[in-house]
Fold these 2 entries.
Entry 1:
Amino acid sequence: MSEKTPPPTTTDAGIPAPSDSHSLSVGPNGPLLLQDHYVIQKMAQFNRERVPERVVHAKGSGAHGFFEVTEDVSQFTKADLFNGVGKTTPMFARFSTVAGELGSADTARDPRGFALKFYTQEGNYDLVGNNTPVFFVRDPSNFQDFIHSQKRRADTDRRDNNMQWDFWTCKPESAHQVAILMSDRGTPKTLRHMNGYGSHTFMWINAGGEKFWIKYHFKTDQGIENFTDAEAGAMAAEDPDYHRADLWNAIGDGDEPVWNLEVQVMPFEDAADYRFNPFDLTKVWPHSDYPPIQVGRMVLDRNPSNYFAEVEQAAFEPANMPPGIGPSPDKMLLGRLFSYPDTHRHRIGPNYLQLPINQPQCPFHSYNKDGAMRYSNPGDPVYAPNTAGGPVADEERYGEEATWDVSGEMVRTAYALHAEDDDVGQAGTLVREIMSQSDREHLVTNILGHASDPDVTAEMKPRIVEYWVNIDPDVGAAVAEGLGVPAPATAGTAG
Ligand code: NDP
């Protein structure tokens, strides 16, 4: 018990509360009175404690830290964040599962969100990636359907492995991401022991206006460590908040996790005839083509002091790109530029950028005003252009720079194919050339564990086998044997 005298309880308006224990009634057994403003405020506020949970990435854990530039990359970008060796920029990270709801288990098989907010001197930079370098689909019109297939059925309100395989086998472009998901990287041991990837291709622009295509890789300094399927399942039962506790305890104990940022840099002109479409989110750029170079390191050194205010209300938006950084023709990225701020306006309100966790830490001067829960407002003039001394865009310095040439008819079509583009090639390379024998054995065990679920129908199993045969005939044969399905003699088209 604290020896200090606690302060008096008050209403939210600061009026001392008459009691912590008793509502106002007419006699000890009598009816309650409407003028008990204090208790009514408690009940009403309690009813409004939740904001809608995120449709995806609902369960997250976060921490504050900093990014430090260790190498000079000014030849590639003028971004404030990445310029000046030794410079540090405060930042906030939020890690999450994708499909699970707020109370779900941390160690479930899922990709992990890896969302970063850097409070740079030229505005917030939000890099909203995953712990995998690729994604399941390459067009934003498929995203909602993909997520529906991973969440709950309409009738039983249960997740359903059959539905997941149905979508994946209908969409063989998912193969690369599913191969990573079904490996032990689908069940990271902790949030500290996984890499983060920007996943999309971004543009960097240097002070001379030269443009480059970029892939971000945050490599864990703690080393990659994963749970096996059985360990992850056991931990889900033992401590559903295991990852959250691990991150909190490590930082609290001074064992601050570190990630080294490496980037792959592609000269702007290379994109046109690179052997893979460099903007396709289901593909990586092999390191032998574009070797990663070191940029800096990210250190997480401070736990949030208030989970709701800092982690739940953190709002990341891939469209937040300060000068020197821009988007690319990656259709998934272009879709996300719209969808993230849209969900924040719905989830936490139109003025989410005024919350301390989301507010820039540099001066800002927009003409946006008013709306629900506005905390501070710009004064006059309220319009531009004006002759009253209001902010003026510096077009010479900050004019549109992240541009590329486009022309053609409006179409609804797939990306133009590059020489080696297909759905399964890179997934096959991963399985055959990167995974160890033990990784492959675990991959097969994990696939079988998932595809043997009673929900997975007898009709679905041959499709699952065909999907894996297309990725790698040996893995396909092992899956066929495990599921008791004859392996097709030659690869076909899954789905
Ligand atoms: P490299 O050998 O140059 O790089 C392979 C990469 O794979 C490394 O970055 C390694 O990073 C990562 N890796 C190692 N083991 C696994 C695993 N079990 N699951 C997923 N990733 C793993 O080869 P390439 O660049 O030519 O790429 C070959 C394949 O590697 C790709 O088809 C892709 O599937 C995978 N990959 C490639 C990446 C890239 O950006 N090129 C990034 C990640 C994976 P680390 O051990 O540090 O995680």
Entry 2:
Amino acid sequence: MSSSSAVSQTHFDAIVVGAGFAGMYMLHKLRGMGLSVRVYERGDGVGGTWYWNRYPGARCDLESMEYSYSFDKDLQQEWDWQEKYGTQPELLKYANHVADRFDLRRDIVFETRVTHAHYDARAVRWAVTTDGGDQVTATHLVMATGNLSTPQLPKIDGVADFAGRRFHTGDWPHGGVDFPGRRVGIIGTGSSAVQAIPKIAEQADQLTVFQRTANFSIPARHGPLDPSQREAHKARYDEIRSAAYETPFGIAKYGSPTQSAFDVSDAERQKIYEDAWALGGQALLFTFTDLLTDGAANETAAEFVRERIRETVKNPAVAELLCPKDHPIGTKRLCLDSFYYETYNRNNVNLVDVKTTAISRIEPHAVVVGDNVYEIDDLVLATGFDAMTGAARDIDIIGADGARLAERWAAGPQTYLGLMVADFPNMYLITGPQSPGVKSQMILSIEHHVDMIAAMIEKLRAEGLTTVAPEAQAQDAWVSENNTVAHMTLYPEAASWYMGANIPGKPRVFMPYVGGVKQYRATCQEVIDDNWRGFAFSDAG
Ligand code: NA7
């Protein structure tokens, strides 16, 4: 909880919504500039995604040496990651370490959800209301609300009436859950399920997986981080971080490929895929330039993975059901796993296709699919999130002249650089839609945005101005650029959460910027060098 002196204060230079990795660094940065800051966080601790997603097997799908803060050299030198890919407990420990190290908690109000944020043009202030009854104002409002933070219950009849234990992977009980002796049903086969299924299968009496869309998954090849490798990485940290800025996804390990899948012979291509598969992680997607732009090139990689599935899963019918055939590989988030496909060789695991026949209803003790009744004790919903726009739309945000964010975004998000929204002065998004965010090393993108937001606030201060907001024209051009770039790729072909396709009724618009981190950063730098082209800085007071 915040200190009592902070609690009694009612006006702040900035309010930050969310104390995940974005909110924590924003707080630190603004405090360092001498601003008064209050952070509201709905959990009772820091860490965001890593606070909520505590399901068995939860891990980051990017390697820890890269998926970590770079803003403080001492922090990155003193922290010793133990595993190649951070586990949820390790990532949460890191988040808490950062909160302690920079004394962040004194400005964070936990277990409090922001419900309303209304801009008062006359006062040049945001009025913010919380579910805890706080009514405070701030000159700047920063949405550090995350991209995957609004868990979705599936719209299936009876889901609310399930009488056994019911869990969502994105809101998992803090004490953990034991499954021995239980018949468990899990709905969903996205990244969360792919990580959880092997772990739950090891414990449960019986695990039934309800699969609507088969996803591509690649072995992560996790393991402990060799201390000598860790030290070697640390010795070159600055160089590696800088190299990451020059890559498409902000990941130094995966640089830009240089040749087309058809520049090599079939045998050479096969060998390249085999090497990438042996290496594990996302390497396979970075083998050729055209995997995400050319359907035929993509199909070579997709079929390679299907062959691995058929090789691994002993029952040919189950293997075929697990082979993704309705979207190009990489156009939905590529899953990384540890023995996911192998799990289907266990005799306590059953795969049910709910694409051909959808789940009809959930009964108090069963999932019903057509004529089949699957009796279960526990129901795990690995059904994902209202991604990228859900958290911001959950808050009643009203900008200048009564503009409602939810209405402005009714046909899809509209932003300038994924950072700000026209008519919402002094409201900033960290890794908002139409920025690389989820299509990049998230912490790198968070740091980039936090630094840009801080620079805008600094500019206002230096020039004695009060408000900044994007110009409508600049925003329209960016939205259009975002769509153009997306449609040069295969991404829009998949019914993914990137497209809003997992939420009934949500507009189908491709939301992340996929022109790459390098290009995005170059564009932002040009904007800044051109005196923040497209942003209107003014003295509204
Ligand atoms: P995802 O990737 O959105 O996966 C959700 C899964 O749940 C997916 O397989 C969905 O099938 C399935 N789903 C959702 N609703 C239903 C219904 N009604 N019936 C059957 N199946 C359903 O969420 P995750 O939590 O796994 O991962 C989110 C991100 O977190 C991930 O990309 C990483 O970045 C980390 P569908 O594909 O829609 O047919």
